[in-house]
């Protein structure tokens, strides 16, 4: 089918799905995004992202949003410092490698840029897709959790780690890496916690030793996001008898775990404002591939979930822009999806391998 008049359904209003929708609309194509969240501000959108010149910014340029991105982005935020866990003194060790031009921006701000750029009613909020089923002619039917259905000539699963669209293409499911992040944060840090603000600086500070790490990341508006990271069984809280809803209990457990580290680093855990969120790190098998199926594909974490070390969001943006470009330039939907998958799948495999190496460098596996 010619893609110019195709019914395109994007499942998931994350960065990749919105990038796809925006580029398509710039070229006069119709698209609908189905999002299970009730509204744009239904939940926190996570921390700061470094948007790389060779990937994420390429997508922003294709979306006509690069100038607006640069007006919000924080070039000073791409600075990394690695510090000694015991003394908090800066070590002569570089942070993770990335493009020289990789300014930071809060994920929520970046998502907002895309949402503001789309035509009204592009995103259908509160529409949770439970699965996609083929109709036999290359088109697909989406089943929503309210029992209604929507038909589309192309379905794009942009619905993240636990994608409801992925099973139509692949039996793969995310597996636990053995690493867990426990996230918290400090508000108005420049005023309320100036010593911690100075220690973190404008970018990111990292301390790591013996299979665990503390990372603090500057966000906008004086907020600092903190991640306590460690290798552990997935349900560590059960063995530790810690109620994850009890912030005091989680804090006490983490302070014991990081006992002996510099007091200023431990203060990042003591003076939290956000409570604690447990985030076990899951990944898809790498490489994750599938046999091409007409009328359906994946992008972002739905296609290539990998450790959160700075590549995932950039790849999702680039996936969205590349798929849109293929749909605009190829003569049929099937040709477009094949061209996109031929480009995206090997790129994602390389990035997944690189991300796994970064995670192992920061939190070495036991015995290494």
TrEMBL record:
Q: Name one GO molecular function term.
A: monooxygenase activity
Its Enzyme Commission number? 1.14.13.-
**Keywords, A to Z?**
Cytoplasm, FAD, Flavoprotein, Monooxygenase, NADP, Nucleotide-binding, Oxidoreductase
Top EC class of this enzyme: oxidoreductase
Task: Write down the InterPro entries for this protein, in alphabetical order.
Answer: FAD-bd, FAD/NAD-bd_sf, TetX_monooxygenase
Q: Which reaction does it catalyse?
A: a tetracycline + NADPH + O2 + H(+) = an 11a-hydroxytetracycline + NADP(+) + H2O
Query: Domain FAD-binding, which positions?
Result: 7-234, 296-353
Give the subcellular location: Cytoplasm
Binding of FAD occurs at 50, 107, 301
User: Which PANTHER family does the UniProt entry name for this protein?
Assistant: FAD DEPENDENT OXIDOREDUCTASE DOMAIN-CONTAINING PROTEIN (PTHR46972:SF1), MONOOXYGENASE ASQM-RELATED (PTHR46972)
Q: How does it assemble?
A: Monomer.
- Relate the protein's function as given in its record: An FAD-requiring monooxygenase active on some tetracycline antibiotic derivatives, which leads to their inactivation. Hydroxylates carbon 11a of tetracycline and some analogs.
Q: What is known of its domains?
A: Consists of an N-terminal FAD-binding domain with a Rossman fold and a C-terminal substrate-binding domain.
Q: Which family does it belong to?
A: Belongs to the aromatic-ring hydroxylase family. TetX subfamily.
Protein name in UniProt: Flavin-dependent monooxygenase
The record lists the lineage as: Bacteria, Bacillati, Actinomycetota, Actinomycetes, Kitasatosporales
């Amino acid at each position: 089918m010619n893609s110019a008049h195709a019914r395109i359904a994007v499942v998931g209003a994350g960065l990749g799905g919105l990038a796809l929708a925006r580029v398509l609309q710039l070229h006069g194509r119709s698209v609908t995004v189905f999002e299970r969240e009730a509204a744009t501000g239904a939940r926190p959108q996570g921390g700061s992202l470094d948007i790389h010149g060779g990937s994420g910014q390429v997508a922003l340029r294709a979306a006509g949003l690069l100038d607006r991105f640069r007006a919000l982005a924080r070039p000073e935020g791409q600075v990394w410092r690695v510090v000694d866990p015991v003394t908090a003194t800066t070590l002569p060790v570089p942070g993770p490698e990335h493009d020289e031009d990789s300014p930071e921006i809060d994920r929520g701000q970046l998502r907002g840029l895309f949402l503001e750029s789309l035509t009204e009613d592009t995103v259908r909020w509160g529409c949770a897709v439970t699965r996609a089923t083929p109709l036999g002619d290359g088109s697909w039917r989406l089943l929503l959790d309210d029992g209604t259905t929507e038909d589309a000539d192309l379905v794009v699963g942009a619905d993240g780690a636990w994608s409801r669209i992925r099973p139509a293409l692949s039996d793969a499911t995310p597996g636990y890496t053995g690493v867990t992040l426990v996230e918290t944060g400090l508000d108005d840090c420049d005023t309320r916690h100036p010593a911690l603000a100075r220690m973190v600086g404008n970018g990111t500070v990292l301390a790591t030793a013996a299979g665990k790490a503390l990372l603090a990341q500057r966000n906008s508006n004086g907020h600092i996001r903190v991640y306590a990271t460690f290798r552990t069984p997935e349900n560590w809280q059960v063995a530790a008898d810690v109620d994850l809803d009890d912030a005091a209990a989680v804090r006490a457990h983490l302070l014991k775990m990081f006992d002996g580290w510099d007091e200023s680093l431990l203060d990042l855990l003591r003076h939290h404002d956000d409570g604690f969120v447990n985030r076990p790190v899951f990944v898809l098998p790498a490489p994750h591939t599938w046999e091409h199926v007409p009328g359906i594909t994946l992008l972002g974490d739905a296609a290539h979930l990998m450790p959160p070390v700075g590549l995932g969001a950039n790849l999702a943006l680039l996936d969205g822009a590349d798929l849109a470009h293929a749909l605009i330039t190829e003569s049929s939907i099937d040709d477009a999806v094949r061209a996109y998958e031929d480009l995206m799948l090997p790129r994602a495999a390389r990035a997944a391998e690189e991300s796994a190496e970064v995670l192992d460098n920061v939190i070495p596996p036991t015995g290494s």
